[in-house]
Structure formats: structure tokens, C-alpha cells
Design brief:
- By secondary structure, the protein is mainly alpha-helical.
- It is built from four helices and no strands.
- Helix 2 (35-56) packs across helix 4.
Length: 110
């Protein structure tokens, strides 16, 4: 049994399956979520942001006394927040702002 290709292959003429094409069109239009679902997701992302801020208000790192996988994972997540319309305000989140500065001094984050 041959599986349908995931992306359009212009040379081969393959097309996306209808449900995937619909999903991709909605993603491009920014309408993947209903307004209610978007509100709930936004609330959850902000709740998580506040939990990270609470930790970094009194610590230099998310776990332990140095850089860990938790810092790497959360750094990449939080960098996406402004792209999702959730700005990171240094006045409201000073712990995260200091943490970002600390991480950006490391060669892997520069």
C-alpha cells in the first residue's frame, strides 16, 4: 500500500490529501483554533509564563545551579511567545529578562 505524500511534489504532481490541505490553508490564514480555543490556549501560555517567572525571580536557572535541558527547552518556547502575540515585558518579567540575558552570553544561545 502506498501512502499519500505529505507535501505537494511539483515535479511529480502529487497533491496534499484534502484534510492536510485544509489544515495547511487554515494554518496560513491563522484560523486553526476557534476564538474560544485560542483564548484558552493564550490563558494557559500566560499561566506557564508566570510559573517560569516565579522560579526565575529567585533563581538563576530553572533547575539546580546551572544550565540544564529545562533552560534550553524553555528558552526556545519563550522566544516564540512574541510571535504568538504574547510579548515578554522586562518590567513585568524581570527574572525571565535576566535569564534571557544570561543565556545569550553563552555561545550556544548567541
Amino acid at each position: 500500500r502506498r501512502e499519500a505524500p505529505l507535501w505537494t511534489d511539483e515535479e511529480g504532481g502529487h497533491a496534499l490529501p484534502a484534510d492536510a490541505a485544509d489544515w495547511l490553508a487554515r494554518a496560513r490564514a491563522g484560523t486553526l483554533l476557534s476564538p474560544e480555543a485560542e483564548r484558552l490556549v493564550r490563558h494557559e501560555l500566560l499561566r506557564r509564563l508566570e510559573r517560569v517567572e516565579a522560579r526565575l525571580a529567585s533563581a538563576d536557572w530553572l533547575v539546580g545551579d546551572g544550565l540544564t535541558a529545562a533552560d534550553v527547552a524553555w528558552f526556545s518556547r519563550l522566544e516564540m511567545y512574541p510571535r504568538l502575540g504574547l510579548p515578554l515585558d522586562a518590567d513585568r518579567h524581570p527574572g525571565i529578562a535576566r535569564w534571557f540575558e544570561r543565556l545569550r552570553t553563552l555561545p550556544a544561545f548567541a
